[in-house]
UniProtKB/TrEMBL annotation:
<dbReference type="InterPro" id="IPR036390">
    <property type="entry name" value="WH_DNA-bd_sf"/>
</dbReference>
<protein>
    <submittedName>
        <fullName>Winged helix DNA-binding protein</fullName>
    </submittedName>
</protein>
<feature type="domain" description="HTH marR-type">
    <location>
        <begin position="268"/>
        <end position="306"/>
    </location>
</feature>
<dbReference type="InterPro" id="IPR036388">
    <property type="entry name" value="WH-like_DNA-bd_sf"/>
</dbReference>
<dbReference type="Pfam" id="PF13463">
    <property type="entry name" value="HTH_27"/>
</dbReference>
<dbReference type="InterPro" id="IPR000835">
    <property type="entry name" value="HTH_MarR-typ"/>
</dbReference>
<keyword id="KW-0238">DNA-binding</keyword>
<dbReference type="InterPro" id="IPR011006">
    <property type="entry name" value="CheY-like_superfamily"/>
</dbReference>
<dbReference type="GO" id="GO:0003677">
    <property type="term" value="F:DNA binding"/>
</dbReference>
Amino acid sequence: MAQVDFAYEVAADAAGLPLAVSIFADDADVRGSMQEDVVAAGFSTLECGGLAWLADGAACPLGELVLVDCPQPDGAGLAALIRLDSRVAHAGARMIVATSIDGLEDVFAACTESRPQILVDPLRAERVIAIGRMLAELPSLRLRELTETDRLALLRLTEQVGKLAERLDGIDRNGWGKNAAGSAFRFESPVDTYRAGGHEAELLRKPRPPLPSARLVRKIIAARKARAKFLDMGLFADPAWDMLLDLTAARVEHQRVSVTSLCIASGVPPTTALRWIGQLTEAGLFERVEDDTDRRRAFIRLTDKAADAMARYFAELGQDAAALV
């Protein structure tokens, strides 16, 4: 089978200078592969070292893109990550952080400002996909102009790479599309369709009905999971809805939901779930809540807007809600 290459021109800023990337990883092999990938994507390497060097060394200039690998962050590593997160946010740069499922809670809690893309136990292919998304999001990036045929071919190639990465990037095909800039890398935000009909409509609006019982919501969740006994769950991937249901039940039960627990509830790989959590937070449906007793933890909950929408949805179903089980 012939191999098709999609080459980019050198990624450059407005002055024509190559865009720079900083790489921080303790594993030399991982650091080397990350450097190869970003160079292949058209970046130049600005800094490349371990997390210990980042923690102990003097402040260094950061690139437009910062890649970090911290699978099992210790106290010093988390302290370095917190400082790096703040620097990236203030510099207007972007950051990709790779970690393990065991390190996810600590990394998520540490990154409060830069809104990084977090990858969980990523394969190399998934790292490349993440870099591709960042290429589309950096405003100063200049890529060669792609024809529509090129874009469609690149889209298919990217999807195939995701499947080969042990389906770690099993995203709904409807989530892959072109953004306003026409990029095939962009993971589209869920549409925020919940809007009031103006001031008068708000005044005439009926009071919000109560949320459904947690028992009903848990039964619906259990029924959805039962499909996996008979059919491939990949056919029914709907992470946004599964997370909304889980957080709805948790709100009624007055329970806090960790990011790891919510990733599990989503029914998709953690990296994909984290991307959805970010998109739903941007849409005003989820919000991050810091743990007052442990700064190393953070939780996710429904916003009042989302709770209102879920309550009205179940009220609309009425007695028919039982038929969903």
